[in-house]
Design goal:
The structure holds two protein chains of two kinds. By secondary structure, chain A is an alpha/beta fold. Chain A contains 13 helices and 17 strands. Chain A has a six-stranded mixed β-sheet with strand order 1-14-13-17-15-16, sandwiched between helices. A four-stranded antiparallel β-sheet of chain A has the order 2-8-7-4, with no helix packed on it. In chain A, strands 11-10-9-12 form a four-stranded parallel β-sheet, sandwiched between helices. The longest helix of chain A has 20 residues. The radius of gyration of chain A is 21 Å and the shape is globular. Chain B is of the alpha+beta class. Chain B folds into two domains: about 55 residues, 3-methyladenine DNA Glycosylase II, Chain A, domain 3 (Orthogonal Bundle), CATH 1.10.15; about 180 residues, Alpha-Beta Plaits (2-Layer Sandwich), CATH 3.30.70.20. Helices cover about 35% and strands about 10% of the residues of chain B. Chain B is elongated, with a radius of gyration of 30 Å. Chain B is built from eleven helices and eight strands. The chains are: A alpha/beta, B alpha+beta. Chains A and B meet through strand 16 and helix 13 of A and helix 5 of B.
């Protein structure tokens, strides 16, 4: 058997806890009302194009992304716009959102709701990118970078590889895994479309070998689609990070502070490929996504296809309700996710999972003194010195932080996970990153 | 013999004198050529400064501050935290600049969201740094403008003029110790602390809230939030109160400390400090 690939530097292997990996995706009914935030993507928030009191159809454009890095937003239910107001979203702050009261479920014209597979991708590359942009597709892995921007290769650069991220290295999450099993064919067509739009002839799907069924399923399908290959990867966190995945799959290193296109790669998530397929061939905007709801105390862990804007509480209800001894509810994976401060926050395009931790699980270990074991240093996938960065950041020695490449930290949380003294290293590094970022911006004027 | 001695003495005196004279001329010329003209006022100002070289002014030390002040020919924008306004006053007098321009200032915390008035809804469990908490969420009480209570300002204060009140979770400024260096103002990620005029007899009136949300939303999280009703603005006869983004602000330059506005505020968001106790009006006693 071929040796499994992985990235070289650092990495950890936390307990996988993929409790919902055998649960097929359940489609939830549209909720009674949704709150659709205007800023669900990286970049400039979209501008609303509907007013209070307007009747909207599912899939209708309700906010337009006008800036270069921005994305369109569509109504995820049909009904009446009750107001455009600030609601608490996953950032923990009130942000502007469009609130819609659901009436029936009427889709706007031109959207193909049929589940049957369409494989006719004889389209102009420009047309593909345009449809991706129109239908508001963003990166579904969590960073929510507008996908159409990634499709436009800057002048002087050439894309060689399209890298598809099916790694799902975060413990507990199974949304991408289920999607690969159930929508494998669609994902393949989506990848072919992305390859065409980018003008590349090689695409590699990276899947960790703890998802043997998905690996086998997609590997079988890949034979039918020219240029696409599937590569099994050794389980290691954070393999799903762009730079680590490129290193693992094509053995290239993205320089510090640069984008993957620098080494001829464009990275997309499998979820994005599925969204691209729906957007381009079914003309279906990004109005729903798969969210994993899991946790040791959850009665029915599962994967749910929900409309964007559904309150998190509705998802928790679908998974058997909020357990009594809940300590934290996390948006995202256990390593990088963030605790929610309100359970009515809406699901956005970047919500990949809702995890429920019990009181005991959510307790942080007591912080002890650093014993100079250097484990954080060994496991840092970016080759940084977390203990040093945390100390420098604490003492506000920002120039030194910058020299130690604090801005290269991707906040994967491996250092915090491995520290035997329970030091919140990442917390301190984040504060430092915040301050250094501010300093850099001020210097630039 | 004495002749020889005389000759040697004379020779030494003349030759050494000549060497000395030539060296003096060279030194004089070199000194003229490389003369550094330094403003004598710099020394004067430096002597007036405390000489602690604490760096509280933001410059490398007292000498650097003196140089900067003399170069700028004004005191505007300069402060000496340990010396306070007295020192600045002395400098102004010594330099013959318009004295009395600097009004004594003091830091004011514009949030009154105590644990009772803005009860926590969630528990924050991470690094106890306001900078981090601010990046994460709106705050335990839910107010996105209110004090996070991690005490970054207290750590920033070099003069022990602040402490965190354990009961309320808010920072407290010790009036006597505050030297108005504004280190806390710069540190607060939410700009809650403001430098305001110290006021006659330390009397101050200010809106103790910076929440810009709509009244109802603000009120839901905090009982003493400014709801932007504008009652105080109507009450003020000196145009000192402005209303912007659902938030009232009292301009301390225009405020005459007439004490008309605090009683009309429906949420008690306007604070008055160091005033004598109000005479109870009959109408108010009934309400209590």
């Amino acid at each position: 058997m071929e040796k499994l690939k992985t990235f070289v530097m650092g990495g950890v292997h936390p307990p996988e806890n993929k409790l919902a990996e055998k649960q097929s995706i359940i489609r939830l009914d549209p909720p009674d009302s949704v709150a659709i935030p205007l800023s669900q993507h990286l970049g400039v928030p979209a501008k609303p194009v509907v007013n209070k009191g307007d009747e909207v159809l599912t899939g209708q454009l309700i906010a337009k992304g006008e800036a270069f890095i921005s994305a369109n937003i569509h109504a995820s239910v049909s009904g009446k716009v009750t107001k455009i107001d600030a609601v608490i979203d996953t950032s923990g702050y009130r942000k502007t959102a469009i609130l819609i009261n659901t009436v029936g479920d009427n889709w706007s014209n031109g959207i193909d709701q049929d589940e049957s597979l369409v494989t006719d991708y004889d389209l102009d590359p420009k047309e593909i990118t345009k449809r991706i942009q129109e239908n508001g597709v963003v990166g579904m892995g969590g960073a929510t970078f507008p996908s159409h921007v990634k499709m436009m290769v800057p002048k002087g650069k050439k894309a060689e590889y399209l890298i598809i991220n099916g790694v799902e290295c975060e413990p507990c999450l199974t949304a991408d895994h289920r999607l690969m099993l159930e929508k494998g064919e669609e994902i393949m067509v989506g990848i072919s479309l992305q390859m065409k739009a980018l003008g590349v002839d090689k695409a590699i799907i990276g899947i960790e070998d703890n998802k043997a069924d998905a690996l086998e399923h997609l590997g079988r399908l890949a034979g039918k689609y020219p240029g696409i290959s599937v590569q099994g990867l050794k389980v290691k966190y954070p393999q799903g990070a762009e730079k680590q995945l490129i290193k693992a799959l094509v053995n290239r290193e993205v320089p510090s502070g640069k984008l993957p296109i620098e080494v001829g790669c464009v990275v997309h998530n499998v979820g994005t490929s599925f969204a691209v397929y729906e957007a381009v061939l079914k003309n279906k905007p990004l109005v729903e996504r798969v969210v994993t709801v899991s946790g040791t105390s959850v009665k029915k862990p599962g994967n749910f296809m929900v409309r964007i804007g559904t309150p998190v509480m509705a998802l928790i209800e679908a998974a058997g309700g909020l357990p009594e001894d809940t300590g934290k509810v996390i948006n995202g994976g256990p390593m990088m996710g963030k605790a929610l401060n309100d359970l009515q926050v809406p699901v956005t395009k970047g919500t990949s999972g809702i995890l429920i931790f019990t009181e005991a699980e959510s307790k942080r270990p007591q912080e002890l003194n650093c014993i100079r074991c250097a484990r954080c240093l060994t496991i840092c996938p970016m080759g940084l010195e977390p203990y040093l960065l945390a100390q420098l950041a604490d003492k506000k020695r920002l120039e030194e932080c910058e020299d130690e490449r604090i801005m290269d930290c991707m906040e994967c949380g491996s250092c915090l996970y491995i520290c035997p003294s329970g030091k919140p290293l990442l917390d301190h590094i984040r504060v430092g990153k915040n301050r250094v970022g501010k300093m850099i911006r001020e210097r630039a004027g | 013999m004495s002749d020889l001695l005389n000759e040697i003495t004379l020779f030494s005196v003349v030759s050494l004198g000549a060497i000395g004279g030539v060296a003096a001329i060279i030194l004089f010329l070199v000194a003229q050529k490389f003369k550094v003209i330094e403003d004598p006022r710099i020394d004067e100002v430096e002597n007036l400064l405390p000489g602690a070289n604490c760096g509280g002014c933001g410059l490398a030390g007292c000498r650097a501050l003196a140089e900067a002040i003399v170069k700028a020919e004004s005191l505007e924008g300069f402060s000496c935290p340990p010396g306070g306004s007295d020192v600045m006053q002395d400098i102004a007098e010594a330099m013959g600049w318009a004295a009395g321009e600097s009004t004594p200032m003091i830091a004011v915390v514009r949030c009154n969201g105590t644990r009772d008035l803005a009860p926590p809804k969630v528990r924050y469990d991470s690094a106890t740094t306001c900078a981090f908490a601010h990046a994460l969420f709106a705050g335990e009480g839910g107010c996105p403008f209110g004090c996070l209570g991690c005490g970054d300002c207290v750590l920033a204060c070099a003069f022990d003029a602040m402490y965190m009140d354990k009961e309320t979770g808010l920072p407290v400024i010790i009036d006597e110790k505050c030297v108005a260096c504004a280190a806390c103002v710069k540190e607060c990620p939410r700009n809650i602390i403001e430098m305001r005029k110290k006021g006659k007899k330390d009397r101050r009136i200010f809106v103790s809230c910076i929440n810009e949300e709509k009244g109802g939303v603000a009120r839901k999280n905090c009982k003493v939030a400014c709801i932007g009703c504008g009652k105080c603005m109507k009450e003020c006869k000196f145009d000192a109160i402005t209303l912007e983004n659902n938030l009232a602000y009292i301009d301390f330059e225009k405020c005459t400390l007439c004490r008309k506005c605090p009683p009309v505020c429906p949420t008690n968001a306007i604070h008055e400090l160091n005033f004598p106790v109000r005479k109870q009006k009959p109408a108010e006693t009934v309400e209590s």
